[in-house]
Amino acid sequence: MKSVRVFAPASVGNIGPGFDVLGMALAGMGDTVLATRRSEPGVSIIEITGDRGRLSYKADENTAGISAQTVLDHLGCREGISLTLHKGVPGTGLGSSAASAVAAAYAVNLLFGEKLSKAELVPLAAVAESQVSRGFFLDNIGPSMMGGVTWNNPFTKEVVSLGRLEKAIVIVAIPDFPLLTKESRRVLPGMIPMEHFISNMAYASMMAWAVAKKDVTRFGRSIQDRVAEAARAPLIKGFEDVKKAALSAGALGCSISGAGASIFAVSDDPKKAEKIGKAMEKAFQGHQVVAEIRNTQMDRLGARMIK
């Protein structure tokens, strides 16, 4: 195989209460990498589209390049690759850097004999996230690689696929301003009340159970975060009103997607989902914020080769 094209989906980190532990892949949004083998060692990025000129072409400054090189080193490859990257993850808070890292890691593995499983690729792809975000996070890498909802342990570097809720509709509101992960993590509390810890543990555990039992209602109503949401909400203009609008329109739950600024809600009814999206958009408009609304589902496959 000389070249391969790989798609990796966007994702929602935390899914509310599961801070750094739970993640959910989103259908219809993601990054695409075209990887081509070459005789020269190392990684070169020859083209990037969809990023509005924001990303670096230097392989050691781009999560796709870092991830590709990490897998090449792990496999002991003497050859190298060239990458073409198309960014298809909108806004911030939807695992954009993770999608690039996952797509590149999966592509390199395919090109050089598919010697590694997805589970084995996860910590290698996460190296790229750690270099860019200054922390080892798996709650976007995991679902982007595996699809569906994943349990992610940054300490053991393990990811477990929990499954997918086919009937869940995920409404995503993407405001027209960015929010960097490092800024969003900076405001997190160093200590939290025991009551808040127990609350998040209870709801995160229930979310995992709900996925196993295919219970969309329990899943949505478990989107209750008493740790990160309150600290990050002031960074997202209009958040409280957007969340209130979503819940009033019938959303089962609503919270910040990952580190923000995107906000997600969950429904089990297509008609309600349309109403929820419009309500979230209108609430943002009330704060002079333009937001793009995407109604989607959980991605089923995670990283995969495409034509």
Gyration radius, rounded: 19 Å
Specify the biggest β-sheet: 7 strands, mixed
Q: Uncertain spans, ≥5 residues at pLDDT below 50?
A: none
Distance between the termini: 13 Å
**Molecular shape:** globular
Number of helices: 10
Mean pLDDT comes to 96
The number of distinct β-strands equals 11
Provide the descriptors you would attach to this structure in a database record.
10 helices, single chain, Ribosomal Protein S5, domain 2, four-stranded antiparallel β-sheet, alpha+beta
Write the layout of secondary structure elements.
Elements: E1 3-13, E2 22-38, E3 42-49, H1 63-75, E4 80-86, H2 96-111, H3 118-133, H4 141-146, E5 149-153, E6 158-163, E7 169-175, H5 181-186, H6 194-212, H7 216-221, H8 228-232, H9 239-248, E8 253-256, E9 263-267, H10 270-285, E10 291-296, E11 304-306
Parallel strand pairs: 3-4
Antiparallel strand pairs: 1-2, 1-11, 2-4, 2-5, 5-6, 7-9, 7-10, 8-9
What features would you describe in this structure?
By secondary structure, the protein is an alpha+beta fold. It folds into two domains: 3-164, Ribosomal Protein S5, domain 2 (2-Layer Sandwich); 169-296, 2-Layer Sandwich (Alpha-Beta Plaits). The chain is 37% helix and 26% strand. It has ten helices and eleven strands. The protein has helices at residues 63-75, 96-111, 118-133, 141-146, 181-186, 194-212, 216-221, 228-232, 239-248, 270-285, and strands at 3-13, 22-38, 42-49, 80-86, 149-153, 158-163, 169-175, 253-256, 263-267, 291-296, 304-306. The strands form two sheets. Strands 1, 2, 3, 4, 5, 6 and 11 form a seven-stranded mixed beta sheet that branches. Strands 8-9-7-10 form a four-stranded antiparallel beta sheet. Helix 1 runs parallel beside helix 2 and helix 2 (96-111) packs across helix 3. It is globular and about 60 Å long. The protein starts with a strand and ends with a strand. The mean pLDDT is 96.
